[in-house]
Amino acid sequence: MPFDRESLALLDEALAVLADGFRHLPDVPRTARMSELREPLLAAARRLQDNAPYHHPLYVGHMQKPPHPVARLAYTLALWLNPNNHAYDGGRASSVMEREAIGEIARMVGWTSSQGHLCSGGTLANFEALWVARELHPGKGIVASSQAHYTHERLSGVLGVSFRAIATDARGRMDPAALEDALQDGTIGTVVVTLGTTASGAVDPLERILALRARHAFRIHVDAAYGGYFTLADNLDADTRQAFNCVAQADSIAIDPHKHGLQPYGCGCVLFRDPAVRRHYRHDSPYTYLSSDDPHLGEISLECSRPGAAAVALWATQRLLPLVAGGTFAQDLAAGRMAALALHRALAADTRFAPLSPPQLDIVVWAVRADTASQASLRARALHAAAAKHDLHLSLVALPQAMLEPHDPVRAWDAETIVCLRACVMKPEHREWMSGILARLDAAARATGQESPQSR
Length: 456
Hints:
The chain is an alpha/beta fold. The protein has 14 helices and 13 strands.
């Protein structure tokens, strides 16, 4: 798959339009000649060859999805000005574009009046949400499922707040009964609900957790950094759809546009249902916020300098691909999920593999069958390396016995976890490429000594 270079002509046209807005200014001599730029730029290109092909459909490893061409171009276009969305003074147009883009994401989850902004990614988005939760529930702890992202425990430590992991069911979803047991002592102020775990794409049962909130006083933060956009997909299973239908009842949410939102890194987003939380951000600066009576973005975020280019790229992408059910963006999400379901069906029919339950979103995980758990882990590692030699790029994930045992991957458990193979089937092209992906997986399995599968 060649890199797109035709769009550079469009970038040149857009730069001419941008320059026209500043034509009244006197010319400034160039500080660098093209001949001086050539060597370091080509050297960087050669160094970047030492990467997996994250942009290609044969890459199904981690949550790395190429930015949409309009996002790449809009981001690059903005760099000629390099706006800073900390204050209107540093990013006047891009600050307005950020507010508009954030408003569209908020409406996607069902909020017409909310507070939010872009940030560097899911880690900081979750950090801000947990920080606000701490301010609203001082002295109370934070809980998340044992399959939630590891940063929740780490961030709780940074905030000086106690943290507890809640057990999950066999599909990696938070167990509401275990959560209710933990709520009995009244020490929990915030429950983190994950809609799409990083390891397996599991979706916590938000509707059942909301029922517990009716009986216990706690705040709900939804970590949907990976899965948030799937609220637009039209092919979710009933349990998953139920969870996404309840998102508007949460108190805060984290979504990463640099995952399914087709944006460059880093572009995260944190949203609060109640705009009044801005009071917790309130601070003063004698040199920054004097140009406008409206709140500057730096007055409602923990970060100071933030790239306005990220807002411009997101705004342009959502202008081209609106966040609406049935639109092109939503259809592409559904296509990736269809590809994930097709991969799961193929793995389930292959006697060499033991896939987990059907994916709730677009992550597929499977163990390599073996006599023992440790042997299964070794086989998975070998297959991971062999697949890369066949230009199929997967990732590895260690999962506990409780999540794997229902699928009978081994005869004997000599370890508490098994290293499994994992595919993030995030690109809409994966649906058309699935037969080729499966052929390469079979070739890699044969190369590691696993014979052709017997049909189940």
